[in-house]
Predict the 3D structure of the following.
Amino acid sequence: MYLYSMNARIALEQAFVKVERGTGEELVDVSDRGKVRPWAKKKVDSMKVAELYKLAMDRGEELLTQSRYQSLLQCGNSLLFGEQNGKKRLIKANFCRIRLCPMCNWRKSLKMFSQVSRISEELLKEKSATRFLFLTLTVKNVTGTRLSETIDGMNKAFQYLFSENRNFAPAAVVKKNLLGYLRAMEVTYNSKSREYHPHLHILLAVKPAYFSRDYVAQSQWREMWRKAMKLDYEPMVNVKAIKQVSAKVIAEVAKYPTKTEDITKIEDEEQAIEALTTLHNALKSRRLVTFGGCFREIQRQLKLDDVESGDLVHVETEMKVSLNFVGYALYSYRAEIGAYIC
Ligand SMILES: [Zn+2]
């Protein structure tokens, strides 16, 4: 029986399956790779972010509507798990999808990891000679007032380097060998200098000729980026070939950007509010992650949904296979003890 597409509770009642609740048992959710999933920690971080939103909005910043704020407060409050072979599988939860929510960003990072593993596996099956590069493009740190325009400029320069629709002579050799890319915009915050560091992490899939006839050295990448960004200084650029090519290695390299969580660690409250407001305004309604070329094509072929706007419950694609749960348990977050309890 499919429980995923329906309201899980109604489906469960119809199936006369008993949902365990009120047993007092604490949630321990272990991933297939043997790691205990940090549900309570993500919930604590998410509540810290909610608290900062409240403080900012009390000072007159119009950041979230009341109902969006409520969904942030309630993000991941109740988790319904199915159990099978001693393993737990999340089947229902409410996630707020607010850009700066640590709980939602963690779910997106699990989803991205799982998707990139599957896509890379497929890509290596179809084109086994594909080679991969990991590229980091940066600019000098900027103040909060210049963050938004800097991000715009970086996105535009990215297009010059990698889009077929943009003519940009210095990037011709790159485009000739490019099969696809994964692009992630990350913004870190330096609490000492109060500056922001926007940078792009890019995974490139290239034809083998890139490493022989058409090799592009790091200094050439820097020059290309400098020209595309129209900078009057030498930006920091890093490029690394991925030597041991496997789907897992590629997925580990292509991480969802979650560093915005560092605002929860700022000690000074006024400063934390200011950083939250700046990041909220600079990142709202922006795409942080883009799949391009072969990555996008295979994502479509495999019928995978969007990492940012898609399902955050079933973040591991193999989960959809296991349907015969032997039991169900509902856990709720209890703030007074900082844990999820059945
Ligand atoms: Zn959330």
